[in-house]
Design brief:
single chain; mainly alpha; Four Helix Bundle (Hemerythrin (Met), subunit A); 6 helices; 0% strand; globular
Length: 140
């Protein structure tokens, strides 16, 4: 991986890890407190998706792949061309669907759904961070 790409991906991975650490704080709170802090949780769900997709775009760009125009396409391209586990790719697509609901206010925000997304988000984005970190470490 060219040094500049590795540096960019490394910075983005650092941000992803910070967002995961922040989300762990909210995950440990009582549900009633999580409901009060829903704006922070919503924002972290958005940032987790965006940072994972940004990392994916950097990996696609590095290898000269056609860049995806939607978050779901990023994870599908990583699955199809870069060995991202199919199940993890599907989970990332689903997790980013929540980001779209939150960002674009497509529907009424269901706080129970937002709070319920926290444990899965921690698992999915942690797995992606591990996968992407390994890609950076193993690239020439």
């Amino acid at each position: 991986m060219p040094p500049d790409t590795a540096e960019v991906v490394g910075r983005k991975l650092d941000m992803l890890h910070r967002f995961l650490t922040d989300m762990e704080y909210y995950a440990a709170l009582d549900v009633s407190v999580q409901r009060q802090e829903h704006y922070a949780i919503e924002r972290l769900l958005q940032l987790l998706c965006e940072s994972a997709a940004d990392i994916g775009l950097q990996l696609l760009r590095r290898d000269g792949d056609r860049l995806a125009s939607a978050y779901r396409e990023v994870f599908i391209a990583l699955r199809d061309r870069h060995g991202l586990d199919a199940g993890l790719a599907d989970q990332l697509v689903d997790a980013c669907a929540m980001r779209n609901v939150l960002t674009h206010l497509y529907d009424t925000i269901d706080l129970d759904r937002v709070i319920g997304a926290v444990p899965d988000a921690l698992e999915v984005y942690s797995a992606f961070a591990s996968w992407a970190g390994e890609r950076v470490r193993s690239s020439p």
